[in-house]
Amino acid sequence: MVKNFFLKSDKSPKNIQIKKDIITHFITTGNDTISELAKGLELSVPTVTKFIAELTDQGLIAEFGKINTPGGRHPIVYGLKPSSAYFVGVDMSRHHLNIALMDFTGNIVDNQMGISYTYESTPESFDVLCGHIQNFIDRTGELKQKIFNINLNISGRVNPESGYSYSSFYFSEHPISEILTKKLNYNVGIDNDTRAMAYGEYMKGAVEGEQNVIFVNVSWGLGIGIIIDGKPYYGKSGFSGEFGHFPIFENEIICHCGKKGCLETEASGLAIHRNILERVANGESTILTEMVKDINKLTLTDIIKATNQEDPLCIEIVEEVGYKLGKYIAGLINIFNPELVVIGGQVAETEGFIMLPIRSSVRKYSLNLVNKDTKIVSSKLKNKTGIIGACMIARGRLFSE
């Protein structure tokens, strides 16, 4: 089942690159005519016509009618054929999995949200993960013959190029992407979860033409995805975006990275969860004690739900975290001068309860002239940001083969 997308019928690297450029044009620009495609790619009309015919014969491109123009021949519009290729995106979090199937044009055609899964960095947990992915593939039926790539989102230090995850499932000398490829018999890649979310939001979400974007993922942990000039920024080894591990606070709280005082220890879902448990233990009241039978089994999902039901204790703690977080987002704005900052992740599902203190803190701590250049918005894709980004990355890997 592992296969190369650009079919065996063409061995020329130059021809393959032109085909990649044509498909990339359709992905970024949408359906278009041959003449406009030739202008955009700086190729001759006969050259583009030849390759469009080949891609059509290969079943990758299709006609989508004609444009009505005054006089002369009406040009034919071409675009990607949705059913020619499919991609699977897997978004893994602490307590569940989201998995989706995307067609060639970027539309989600099937998904499973909130699959029960407890993450542990063990071979047993890894096998369970593979089982869930295989079950999803099997349910796609005949479409699985057209799945070209799979991408798994993993939190922490991930090197997409080498295929190694250094924060999760790092128990083999072989890269995890290679192990997954052999187990599932499909091309499988990995990427950092927050970077995938940033890319999903850029391609299908809140981004409306902005080219320089920071996506802040406030979930159990804290990270950022960076888009510069329309492209995800990886850094040398794919480790960019570790915002949550800024050494900020003089506290004795040990972060999961092993160090003390990280931003994540006081500005994340983990911090919200810890503070609520501490304050409930000290006798403060909250509807969570009615919602959850065993408070020690409290989840971040429970807290988000209680916050949106206007529980005073939850609101207070979420707002405190939002204000702390906004101070350091202001620092990012001062450094990067982005057009857009998108706040996403599970904690962002509290909407105004987290967004208002973030905006207030950013106004206070960022430079006025820089701040005026930046809009701050909440995620448009919500809990599907990760799987959409994972699918988009899986599709994008076609062009790096």
Explain what this protein looks like in three dimensions.
This protein is an alpha/beta fold and 401 residues long. It has 3 domains: 13-83, Winged helix-like DNA-binding domain superfamily/Winged helix DNA-binding domain (Arc Repressor Mutant, subunit A); 85-198 and 386-400, ATPase, nucleotide binding domain (Nucleotidyltransferase, domain 5); 208-379, Nucleotidyltransferase, domain 5, CATH 3.30.420.40. The chain contains 13 helices and 15 strands. The strands form 4 sheets. Strands 6-5-4-7-10 form a 5-stranded mixed beta sheet. A 5-stranded mixed beta sheet has the order 13-12-11-14-15, with helices on one face. Strands 1-3-2 form a 3-stranded antiparallel beta sheet. The longest helix is centred in the C-terminal third of the chain and has 25 residues, at 312-336. The two termini are 16 Å apart. The relative contact order is 0.12. The model has no long low-confidence stretch (mean pLDDT 94).
